Amino acid sequence: MKKRGGVDKEHRPFNCTHCNWAFKKLSNLQSHLQTHSGLKPHVCDICGKAYSHQGTLQQHKHLHTGDRPYHCPFCVKTYIWSSDYRKHIRTHTGEKPYVCDTCGKDFIRSSDLRKHERNMHTNNKPFPCTHCGKTFNKPFSLKRHERKHLGERPFSCPDCGKTFTLASRMAEHQKIHAGVRPYVCMVCSKCFTKSSNLTEHEAIHTGARPYKCTGCGVAFAMASRLVRHQYVHNKEKPHNCTGCSKNFSDLDTLKLHQEQTCAGRIFVCVKCDKSFQCAAKLAQHMLNHMGTNV
C-alpha cells in the first residue's frame, strides 16, 4: 500500500524505521513513533481515554463539548475529527490518494484500499462462482457477483424505475434526479454526480492518459475506456442483445443497436407473414426463402 505521490525524501529527512513514513521535523517523527510503541501519554481528564498525540486528545474533547470545528466549504456538513473532514472533502474533489501497488486502482480512504487488497489480491477466497469459476472471500460478495450471470437487478429507482445490481449504484444514480453534483473540478468548477466522471473530465485539463494498451500502445484517460478498447484486440463481445441474441464489444454499440432495430418493433416477412422482434432475425429468416428459390 502506498500513498499517491510517495514521500519527498529531500524535504522529509526523518524516516520511521518501522514503516515508510518520513517527516520534515524530528519532533513529528518522535510523535509518530509513539503509534508503534503503544505509548499513549495524553489522557482525557473527563473520561480517562488516552492518546498517542496531544492533537488527537484535543479533537477527542470535542465529543464532550459538542463542538464540530471542521466545516466543509462545499456543503453543510461539519466534523469533530480532522481525519473525517479530510476524507469527506475528497468526495467533492475526487482526490484518491491511496493506490493499490498490484493493479493501480486508487481510493479515497486507506480502509477502502485495504479492503480492496484483501478481496482482490489475496488467495483466501474459498467461495467459487459456479458460472465462471471466479472466487470470493465472502458469501455476500459471491451472491452479489452472481447477479450478473442471473440478470438480477433487485434495486429499483423510485423516480424512474431503472434497476441496478448494487444498492450503491442506485444511490449514485438517484443524485441525477435530486440534482446533486458533489464532485467539483478544482480547475474550472464544473460539477459531476460521479467521482469517475470528474476524474475523466480532469484529464481534459491535465492531458493525462495513464492507461496504456499493451497490444497497440494507445493510451486512455480512463481504465474503462482501455477495457472497452481491448475488446477489439481480443474480439470479445460480452454485451448480448436479448431481442436477437446478437453480441457487441461495448455497451454503447449495444444500446444503439437496440434503439434502431430492437426497440419493440415488429418485422414481418413479405414471403410468409412470419413476424420477428428484430431486423437481424428477419434478415436471417429471409435467407431460408432465398435458398428455396434457387
UniProtKB/TrEMBL annotation:
Residues 14-41, 42-69, 70-97, 98-126, 127-154, 155-182, 183-210, 211-238, 267-294 form the C2H2-type domain. InterPro entries: Snail/Krueppel_Znf, Znf_C2H2_sf, Znf_C2H2_type. It comes from the Eukaryota. Gene3D superfamilies: Classic Zinc Finger. GO terms for cellular component: nucleus. One of its GO terms (molecular function) is RNA polymerase II cis-regulatory region sequence-specific DNA binding. Keywords: DNA-binding, Metal-binding, Nucleus, Repeat, Transcription, Transcription regulation, Zinc, Zinc-finger. Pfam families: zf-C2H2 (PF00096). The keyword Repeat applies. It is found in: Nucleus. Its main location: nucleus. SUPFAM superfamilies: beta-beta-alpha zinc fingers. Belongs to the krueppel C2H2-type zinc-finger protein family. May be involved in transcriptional regulation. This is C2H2-type domain-containing protein.
